[in-house]
Amino acid sequence: MNFNKSSNIEDFLASLENDSYPMKPCSKDDISKLVKLSPTRTLPKTYLDFMNKAGNGIEFLVGTDYSMKYIFDLKEWAIELLEENNSIKILTDNQFIFMMHQGYMFWFFNLNDGDDPAVYCYDESLELEDFNKVSDTLSDFLISLYD
């Protein structure tokens, strides 16, 4: 199953659900805890939709830390990774780390970028002056991980 740029996260997740694709949703309590992670800013609708359906596991993200089990530690781990690599990059309160892979790369979005924000990445193997923009939207990013 392939999705294109016009696909949104709701259609994508509904399609996976219809195909009985393995994913574990967040509970209402989990979503409430997520919202409290960023009390002064609103988490994007796309992110909350994804976590609502797959926030406790989805098959195509095995090996990547993003679920409720890890979400409360990701920012701290990202800061540690930057420090270990003597990076001059700094994470702000506006940047929400939503995913980390194998401890050497992480992804984030800016909390003030709307309901389907752009996604940025840090990869310790790349020597870039700034964070790398990897997708114009969170929906496209998540769908591309599946495709």
From TrEMBL:
Record-linked InterPro entries: Knr4/Smi1-like_dom (IPR018958), Knr4/Smi1-like_sf (IPR037883)
Pfam families in UniProt: SMI1_KNR4 (PF09346)
Domain Knr4/Smi1-like: 25-143
Protein name: SMI1/KNR4 family protein
Organism listed in the record: Lysinibacillus mangiferihumi
